[in-house]
Amino acid sequence: MKLRFRFRFLLPLLFPLLLPLAALGQITQPPGVLYQSSAPSGTCSEIPPIQVVNSTGAICTCAGGTWACGTGSPGSYAPLNSPAFTGIPTTPTNANASDSSTQIANDAFVQNAVALSMGTVPLNFASVASPVSFDSKGTGQLVSYTTNTGAVSGFTAWIPSTGTNYVVGDVITIQGGNYDSMIQVTGVTSGYVTSGAILYGGTGYSNGTSIAATAANTIPYTFLLSGALANSVSIIMPHGTYLTQSNQWIFADNTTGGPTYTNTVCVAGATDACSGGSTVTLKEGTGNSTSATLQTDGVLNVTLADTPLGIGALPLAGGTMTGAVVFSGSGSGSANAVGTDNSAFGYNALNVSISGTDNTGVGQGALNSLTSGSDNTSIGSGSLAKDTSGGNNTAEGFNALNHTTTGAHNTALGAYALDFIATTSDNTAVGYYSLVYNTSYYNVAIGSSAGEFISGGSTQNTTGIYSTLLGYATEPLANGDSNETVIGSQAIGNGSNTATIGNSSVTATYLGGITMPIVVYTHAGTQLAACASGTLGGEAVVGDAASGGLTPGTAYSVTAGAGSVTVRVQCTLTGSTYAWQTM
Predict the structure, then answer these.
(1) Full-prediction pTM beyond 0.85?
(2) Looking at residue 200, what is its pLDDT?
(3) Contact 567, 534 (CB under 8 A)
(4) Where are the domains of the chain?
(5) Lowest mean pLDDT across 88-92, 97-101, 494-498, 570-574
(6) pLDDT computed for residue 284 by the predictor
(7) Do 31 and 22 form a contact (C-beta atoms < 8 A)?
(8) Sequence-ordered list of residues with C-beta below 8 angstroms from that of 372, at least 6 positions apart, any chain
(9) DSSP 8-state code for residue 527
């Protein structure tokens, strides 16, 4: 009797404990409800009250010791595994729009994140120390801070030993407000932060105690830099992979201190330091006048991303570019670019390391050897292709100034114009093949093939100097002629320090209403064709007193001295008087 009584006494206490094992089988228990893939069966107890949601979403309840399920309409709870919501479900909004965790993002969060990616971040670089690194590896730091009108304004305590892996220069964000403050770490002990400088106080903050400060996010912002630099600054962008950290940012450098001090952007390597790949040195301006869009591959290189139009149009290795630099076309600007205000359009245009400024290369291979020259303009495939350090050259046309290496102040307009000028300067050639072979100084040629050959039309004109050749296929008399002027289509010059107007077909020259017929004589009195040269024995002396004047078109005898020279004489008319003049 005692044993039977004790069992009856214990049975009500044990039954609720045995029920889940006997009746509920594989039921799991989310908050306030149980779930199993099929409807529960068997007996049940109403103490404690239990609800079960079966696979159809219907609620099953314990009624009268047995399970009773609804008709299958959705219940109050969804399953944990792949729940299917209906209606307009809501979730709490994550206040940190830069959060990249697995937390559910609702519409409000997405809108905030999009707005953040288009946001502008002003950074105070006045006397900022270098580097400024957005690639902090630090975690766990806690800080207490004060605010002013929603912005972080000061720090009351950096909690000791709460952080690890921080280094001086890291930029971190206090996890509060709108999560947008930018704090540069200025002191570190054993990996935790001991001091910091405010680059941007952020928005929406209130005073905080022991708040986390983690690596600043660099969702593609527009960074506005201001303040007087006290030193040059390296700005380190995050390291990652081509997929995770291949981003673009806009930098507007409104700082002062250049050119002595500059801001240079790089991408971090595996450590919190520049990778050693290509960098971009920002150009200072005012009022965001020098905004530049930068691209990083996330692993090694930072390049300018202004209007890249073609495979390889952005430089990929080493060097620094600053200012309004534009590269467009396969391979253009594709290696160690260093310089300011350079533009390249076309395959391999401006594709080697340069330190020059204000160069423009348009066309395949234009300026593709330039290393230090400045103020060059090259338009046309192969134009100025070999220029290494020459400056203030202008070439327009296929292979114009093609062989120029260090020459300066040359202007060539037309295919092959001044093609072989290498180290000489101050030449101007306009026209196809004009002065194509000349390698000297201070020449002007205008016209197709002007100055291409010397007299005779087969020997290249290479060394004329201080000469002017105007007209189609004009030719100096000989190589090395100096101060020779030749004017007229196919006109041929008469040597150094002479001026020739017209070709052999010209019968008269008119200057200011004065007719100047041209006749040439030999010492034997035989008249030659107009504009040809006669061979005289010695120096010819021509007088007109005995004959009372010379008549154009009439042969006259001349007195010759010893020797043989080529002399050209010209009959000029002044009023009614003719007079011979040697030329």
Answers:
(1) no
(2) 94
(3) yes
(4) 15-85, 510-582
(5) 570-574
(6) 83
(7) no
(8) 354, 355, 356, 388, 389
(9) B
